[in-house]
């Protein structure tokens, strides 16, 4: 028995969502009295994993294949899981994690659960709570299989330090038979992405036009936040659709979500439901967003946002 | 070029979600069903390939007879034929198994599934289907162009996109970006009339296990009222976020 976690890196740093996955894997390993194994690809320094309770690290050499490769990565996970008789393989809810999850589950003949919130509710059989209906509801799902692959919903467990002594080990390079070949990566921004952000600042049609997005950008920059937008804004082409948040766009599970000039259509509210604290700034007191928010200001974004930005800036510099 | 577009029958995005039978089942009452939006982006991209190079499009769903309305809509949009695999979908694994059993016999060049359905959000049918068929899968696909035998693709990743190339056969997980919202096709009268004549075949399911079952549902806890802060008192908002919400 063992618990396997897939550790994802970005520019040779371990992603925060992967530290959450390691902490989560540790908690499951403790509950089941077994060991925690981390699998990572081309990580230069694995020492950080010893702070999060990892017992064993498989650091797979990437040789000249530097890009994520779902076929090879899933084959590697399955090979190690088989060798280590893993009963859980855990990935984050990142784009790559959610890509790997179902493929790995199909190959490992395991049950796959996505969007899992917190620790399993039971282990025999495995029962988890997961979000569904795009965060409008949750369900309790029971596995009919004792091998599980799951993707953990971001910020649903937290990151916890727990010192351990991680043994380094390796396996032979696993080949990929996939005909897909990554040519390049284009970053859309130098800022933090919506999926990785603790704070997200989002703009709606109330901002009147793309030329006013400096308001959102400035506030986000002071907060170290990602920028997002409502569906009409992305449909109008004011912002790229990668920023569209909602039922057909991206879900947001940040700690703080600030919506400026977003009315709060049901589809938008569903997409941000997993965010912990929601703030709305809108000049229409009847905007539905006020019913979903924790804090609100009825006011003109063109006056409120510059003032909020400069006051937060002063606070951060103090 | 033979294309299969897998379609899921889902509650309209404006639906209020409720449960019945002591929270053990979804409440269908008053719900309008639509083509899963991610599947519709994929179908629209398939229609462009049909217009450009005469691709033949089959749409398929796993579900009961009540799903036929959305299959007819797919035909009205322009799909050539529809397949309904006659069983209640139990989970993503069960659906992928049914679709794989059908697709195996048909040797499609391109299979399109939505990135995920907006009801159960499993996000697993495409990846599992591709794995069962032993062909590559590309999740979160936002670009698909065919140039002779080479397929140029893009995948949305966290904070950017990945540029790829590949060959058919292929399974892709469609989402917004593959086509835009404005590109979606509203069926016209001619399309609706033609759809009635197009084949909609019902197939018997294969033996397939389910890997999980849903025990119960719950709704998020009711939210307390919003705390309103005066627009002239930004300091108060900052104080609340910092000291009450611990969010800064």
What does this structure look like?
- The complex is a heterodimer of chains A (318) and B (248).
- With 318 residues, chain A is of the alpha/beta class.
- Chain A has two domains: 2-169, Rossmann fold, CATH 3.40.50.620; 194-317, TPP-binding domain (Rossmann fold, 3-Layer(aba) Sandwich).
- Chain A contains eight helices and 18 strands.
- Chain A has helices spanning 16-32, 70-83, 95-108, 214-223, 231-235, 266-272, 289-292, 301-317; strands spanning 2-7, 9-10, 13-14, 35-41, 56-60, 86-92, 111-116, 122-123, 126-132, 137-143, 148-152, 167-169, 181-187, 199-203, 226-229, 256-260, 277-282, 295-298.
- In chain A, the strands form four sheets. A seven-stranded parallel beta sheet of chain A has the order 7-11-6-1-4-5-12, sandwiched between helices. Chain A has a five-stranded parallel beta sheet with strand order 15-14-16-17-18.
- In chain A, strand 16, helix 6 (266-272) and strand 17 form a beta-alpha-beta unit.
- In chain A, helix 2 packs across helix 3 and helix 4 packs parallel to helix 8.
- The model of chain A has no long low-confidence stretch (mean pLDDT 94).
- Chain B has 248 residues and is an alpha/beta fold.
- Chain B has a single domain (2-220), classed as 3-Layer(aba) Sandwich (Rossmann fold).
- Chain B has six helices and 15 strands.
- In chain B, strands 11-10-9-12-8-1-6-7-13 form a nine-stranded mixed beta sheet, with helices on both faces. A two-stranded antiparallel sheet of chain B has the order 2-5. In chain B, strands 3-4 form a two-stranded antiparallel sheet.
- In chain B, strand 6 (56-62), helix 2 and strand 7 form a beta-alpha-beta unit.
- In chain B, helix 2 crosses helix 5 (189-197) and helix 3 (92-106) crosses helix 4.
- The longest helix of chain B has 17 residues, at 37-53.
- Chain B is globular and about 65 Å long.
- The mean pLDDT of chain B is 96.
- Strand 10 (137-143) of chain A pairs antiparallel with strand 14 of chain B, so a sheet runs across the interface.
């Amino acid at each position: 028995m063992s618990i396997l976690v897939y550790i994802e890196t970005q520019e040779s740093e371990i992603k925060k969502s992967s530290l959450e996955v390691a902490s989560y894997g540790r908690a499951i390993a403790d509950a089941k009295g077994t060991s925690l194994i981390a699998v990572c690809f081309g990580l230069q320094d694995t020492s950080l994993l010893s702070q999060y309770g990892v017992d064993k690290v498989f650091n797979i050499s990437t040789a000249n294949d530097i890009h994520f490769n779902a076929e090879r990565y899933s084959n590697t996970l399955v090979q190690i899981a088989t060798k280590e008789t893993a009963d859980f393989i855990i990935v984050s809810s990142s784009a790559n994690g959610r890509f790997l999850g179902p493929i790995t589950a199909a190959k490992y003949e395991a049950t796959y659960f996505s969007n899992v919130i917190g620790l399993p509710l039971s282990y025999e059989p495995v029962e988890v709570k997961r979000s569904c209906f795009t965060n409008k509801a949750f369900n309790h799902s029971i596995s009919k299989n004792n091998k599980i692959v799951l993707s953990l919903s971001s910020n649903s467990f937290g990151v916890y330090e727990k010192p351990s002594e991680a043994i380094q080990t390796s396996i032979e390079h696993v080949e990929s038979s996939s005909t897909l070949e990554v040519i390049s990566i284009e970053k859309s921004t130098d800022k933090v992405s919506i999926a990785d952000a603790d704070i997200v600042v989002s703009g709606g049609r109330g901002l009147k036009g793309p030329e006013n997005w400096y308001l959102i950008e400035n506030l986000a920059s002071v907060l170290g936040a990602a920028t997002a937008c409502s569906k009409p804004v992305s449909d109008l082409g004011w912002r790229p659709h990668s920023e569209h948040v909602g039922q057909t766009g991206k879900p947001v599970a940040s700690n703080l979500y600030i919506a400026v000039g977003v009315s709060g259509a049901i589809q938008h509210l569903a997409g941000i439901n997993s965010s912990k604290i929601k703030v709305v700034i809108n000049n229409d007191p009847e905007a539905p967003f006020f019913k979903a928010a924790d804090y609100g200001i009825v006011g003109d974004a063109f006056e409120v946002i510059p003032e909020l930005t400069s006051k937060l800036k002063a606070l951060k510099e103090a | 070029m033979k294309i299969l577009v897998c379609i899921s029958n889902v509650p309209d995005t404006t639906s209020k979600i409720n449960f019945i039978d002591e929270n053990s089942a979804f409440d269908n009452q008053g719900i309008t069903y639509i083509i899963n939006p991610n599947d519709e982006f994929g179908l629209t991209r398939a229609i462009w390939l049909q217009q450009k190079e005469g691709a033949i499009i089959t749409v398929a769903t796993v579900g009961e007879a009540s799903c036929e309305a959305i299959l007819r809509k797919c035909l009205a949009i322009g799909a050539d034929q529809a397949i309904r695999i006659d069983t209640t979908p139990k989970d993503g694994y069960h659906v992928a198994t049914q679709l794989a059993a059908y697709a195996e016999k048909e040797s499609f060049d391109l299979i399109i599934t939505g990135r995920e359905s907006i009801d159960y959000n499993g996000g697993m049918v495409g990846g599992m289907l591709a794995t069962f068929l032993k062909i590559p899968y590309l999740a979160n696909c936002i670009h698909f162009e065919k140039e002779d035998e080479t397929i140029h693709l893009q995948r949305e990743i966290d904070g950017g996109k990945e540029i790829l190339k590949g060959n058919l056969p292929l399974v892709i997980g469609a989402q917004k970006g593959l086509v835009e919202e404005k590109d979606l096709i509203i069926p016209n009268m001619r399309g609706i009339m033609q759809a009635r004549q197009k084949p909609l075949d019902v197939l018997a399911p294969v033996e397939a296990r389910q890997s999980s079952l849903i025990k119960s549902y719950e709704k998020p806890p009711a939210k307390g009222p919003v705390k309103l802060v005066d627009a002239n008192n930004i300091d108060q908002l900052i104080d609340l976020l910092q000291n009450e919400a611990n969010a800064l």
